[in-house]
Structures are given as structure tokens and as C-alpha cells.
Design brief:
Length: 293
């Protein structure tokens, strides 16, 4: 059990919720709070940390050079590390120069991929970024989508390279050369203890059923929202009114227009069907439900 376990998702797909639940299960659920989460399974994007270890100055690098530097950093930081540290990831899986990859096998124990209906991702991403929903829909279809700007030495983090929603999913579940456990956000809502156990098992940790249930109770959405309301949360950007906004499945049905829902289905239909987010009568059922709201 050496190397990192990458906890991967497209933004707004449950990564922070999963991190909190895993932290609670591996620690004291009764004392788990958002301040502790700041030190658990965070993405390693700090420019100063990377530059210090790699003796570099990433502010001068282009995309390809930045990716190669981060790949080398991951290997230097996580190869042989045991027990497996859990590390948050939003980047797609991708090759870098010299036929290496951003998240190298030598630095990897396993990967967990959290997937969520892209229609719900779109409305959550729009609210998080304080942008129109049509902007978020276009973002999810952009093959060059990224978070963070390149070559701004005043920024504290390096960019995250996402690509489109469909490309992001395919890169991890079809291209990564190591085990990838796929967990649907919607299944986490319905069977949280089972999904949490699967994620911890993939990372190489074993906990009792009682501990899983305790961790699930500690990480319920209402509690996380209350913790954020009472004490704030570092990961909430100024653009977002709340980090923990609603946490529901199929919230898109009350928000998206038929045209917006159809645009997402047209762009991502094959991958949505593959993971159960789109069925043959989905458009009909959407129009029927839209009349009820």
C-alpha cells in the first residue's frame, strides 16, 4: 500500500464531501470539522511547495512544462509513501512529456473517481463561480477548460487542467493504468456507508461498520452546511454565497430550461448513458416534470 490514492472528480461533484467523510471515518467523527479538513487530502497545487521541492520557478513555465514539473513532483512526493495518503485531484488524467503522466503509476496506490450528473454539475458550478448557467454549460464542453491561470507568478497555485466533462471522465476510467474505483454522487446520497466503505477499501483502509455509520452521520450535508455557516470555510471563494449549497440529486430538473438540458445531453450523451444519467425516455420525463415546477 504505497503511493497516493487520488480522490478525483470534476469540480462540484462531491469531492469535499467525500474527503470529510473519509477524514471522519479515519479519525474522531465527533470532532470532525472544516478546520481539520484543511489538512486532510488536500490537492497539492501550492506553487511554493512545488517550486521548493523541485528547485524550480513555475511562474515562467508554459503548459507542457508545468505539467511535466507537476508529474515529477508527484513522483518525488508520493512514490513509496505508506500508508497511502489520500490526495484531492481535479485534473484530468493525461500524458506529459517523455511519455510520462501527470499522476504517475510509481506515485500511485489507486484512484477513486467521483462522478455526478453533469446537469447538476452545471448548475452547481454556475452558482459557485457566480456565472450564468449557459456559461457553465459551455465550460463543461470546453476541451481546454482549466482552473487557474498560467504564468501568473503572483498566484499561489498552479493551474488544474480539466478538459470537458466527458473527456475528464474518460481519461480516468478508460486511460489510467492503475485501479480506478468509480463512485456515483447519487449513490453516495442513497447508500453513503456502502460508498464510503468502498472508497476507504480502495485506499487500503479498513474500518468497522459502526465507524462507517458514525462517519456518515458526522458528514451529513446539513451538518456541513451548518459548520460552514457558523465558522466559515476556506475553500469557499468570494464568488460563492455558500460552498455547501444544496447537495441534492436531480436539482437540475427545477432549474434548467429544456434547451439547456438538451444542450448538455447532446454534448455528453454517450458518457451520461454509460453511467446511468440518460435513458431513452429521459427527455420526455424532463418535459413532464418541468410542468410541475
Amino acid at each position: 500500500m504505497s503511493g497516493a490514492t487520488w480522490l478525483v472528480s470534476y469540480p462540484r461533484s462531491g469531492n469535499t464531501w467525500a474527503r470529510f467523510a473519509m477524514m471522519a471515518a479515519l479519525g474522531d467523527p465527533d470532532r470532525a470539522d472544516l478546520e481539520q479538513l484543511d489538512g486532510f487530502a488536500r490537492a497539492v497545487l501550492d506553487r511554493g511547495v512545488i517550486d521548493h521541492l523541485m528547485e524550480s520557478d513555475s511562474g515562467y513555465l508554459d503548459d507542457g512544462e508545468t505539467l511535466a514539473l507537476r508529474a515529477a513532483f508527484h513522483e518525488a512526493r508520493f512514490a513509496g509513501m505508506s500508508p497511502s495518503p489520500i490526495v484531492k485531484v481535479h485534473d484530468k488524467w493525461q500524458r506529459v512529456s517523455n511519455n510520462g503522466c501527470l499522476h504517475p503509476p510509481a506515485a500511485t496506490h489507486a484512484a477513486i473517481y467521483l462522478i455526478r450528473d453533469p446537469r447538476d454539475v452545471a448548475i452547481s458550478w454556475a452558482a459557485f463561480m457566480a456565472r450564468p448557467i449557459d456559461w457553465a454549460i459551455a465550460f463543461l464542453s470546453d476541451p481546454h477548460a482549466q482552473v487557474g491561470q498560467l504564468r501568473q507568478r503572483t498566484t499561489t497555485t498552479v493551474p488544474e487542467y480539466l478538459g470537458s466533462w466527458s473527456d475528464h471522465v474518460a481519461s480516468w476510467v478508460d486511460e489510467a493504468p492503475y485501479p480506478v474505483t468509480v463512485v456515483r454522487y447519487e449513490d453516495m446520497l442513497c447508500e453513503p456507508a456502502l460508498c464510503l466503505g468502498d472508497m476507504l477499501n480502495a485506499a487500503g483502509y479498513r474500518v468497522t461498520p459502526a465507524t462507517l455509520e458514525h462517519a456518515v452521520a458526522a458528514s451529513r450535508f446539513e451538518r456541513l452546511a451548518a459548520l460552514e455557516r457558523d465558522a466559515g470555510f476556506r475553500d469557499r471563494p468570494d464568488s460563492a454565497e455558500r460552498f455547501f449549497r444544496s447537495g441534492r440529486a436531480q436539482a437540475w430538473r427545477a432549474v434548467l430550461s429544456p434547451e439547456q438540458a438538451d444542450a448538455i445531453a447532446q454534448a455528453h450523451g454517450p458518457m451520461m448513458r454509460r453511467f446511468g444519467y440518460l435513458v431513452d425516455d429521459d427527455e420526455t420525463s424532463f418535459h413532464e416534470l418541468a410542468q410541475e415546477f
